[in-house]
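QA checklist item 7 of 12: single-chain prediction sanity check.
[x] sequence parsed
[x] length recorded as 155
[x] structure emitted
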Amino acid sequence: MKRIITLIIAVLLVFSISACAKEAVIDLDEIKTELENAEVFVDELVPISAARIESVINLDVTLFSEGRGDFYIGSGYASGEEFGLFECNSANDAKTLVTQLEQRRDDQYELYASYATEALPLISNTVIKQSGKYVVYVAAADFDKAREIVDKAFA
């Protein structure tokens, strides 16, 4: 009898652990569409290549080399607006990417403080959100609406 109860408990434990290990899938395309439709950006944002993500944005592209890494920057006007959508190789890689994106935000703040102070509030309110291997970074003129969209997607 003790063996049967122990076996049942072990099976339940395995099922509970595997249920906890399930990772939510974040629809990055849906977030992108919602951000664009909500018109949270004043500037027209354009995608940049993976090579520029590494050299200009200073992000390690190997963190999302097996997943997805999209980054959009302003087309010329110094608005400070930009956003990135990432599916990293692992949750640990996503944590590392968050640290790099926080550094990006801080660097942008320092840069814009010298010549475009009107962008500082949106840079200060940059949304950086991680769930598992997914990371979203949004610096938008309507940062409250951007945060609402990202929070909803990560709920």
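[x] summary fact logged: The chain has one domain: 24-154.
[ ] second reviewer sign-off
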